[in-house]
Amino acid sequence: MNPLSPVAAVGRSTLALLAAIGRVTLYTGATLSHLVRPPFYFREFLNQLMVIGYFSLPVVGLTTLFTGGALALQIYAGGARFNVEAVVPQIVAIGIVRELGPVLTGLMVAGRVSSAIAAEIGTMKVTEQIDALVTLSTNPMKYLTVPRVVAATIALPLLAAVGNVIGILGGYLVSVLRLDFNGATYIRNTVEFLEPSDIISGLVKAAVFGFIVALMGCFHGMASGRGAQGVGRATTNAVVSASILILASNFILTGVFFTE
Prior knowledge:
The chain has helices at about 5-35, 40-50, 55-80, 90-125, 130-135, 140-175, 185-195, 195-220, 225-260. It is built from nine helices and no strands. The chain is mainly α and about 260 residues long.
């Protein structure tokens, strides 16, 4: 066995990672350049806004509802050790609005939308529909990528805003119905504690997550291999890469917004 084999394996993995980062960077640059140049397919944008935004409401609503309720229970149990159970409304609100709302929305939409986009575009590539678009003088980036990226970037903040309200509602229901909190006091504490910067930071995060979700779906769909196996691999890679980038960008954005 060659003693340098482990080193060579690490080198190959590193080069493959750098090559992948380069391809994603070039694809991102091409997408941004097409965003500011006509034409823009408005009908396709509206269709994607419906698919990405409206049809994702049930999964986002249920996820944030149960998360808000579970968060209230956990904070109450932890606060009871220090006799600070009264902070449940404030911590639930800031936890949902700053972090859990946008992150959970991004992850849920990544699982639902990013995979669907990759599968759709990958299937179009396998069946040579993308080649047909080129033959008809239609730029695939313009027709497939740009409307989806713009729609997701707009839809995710709206979904996160709805998810924030539903998540806080989940905490409210658990606190009032099970933990014997006064409903009016709970709402007043929530409203008084939240600041505009908390809400704005969460919505900005959600917009970035939406861009990532659509971009990864389109990128892996365009890079899909031939056949069913290639489409399946592209779908898996889209969800995994979108989820990792959402968590990484959330860490970076949190540092930008909340580091003194």
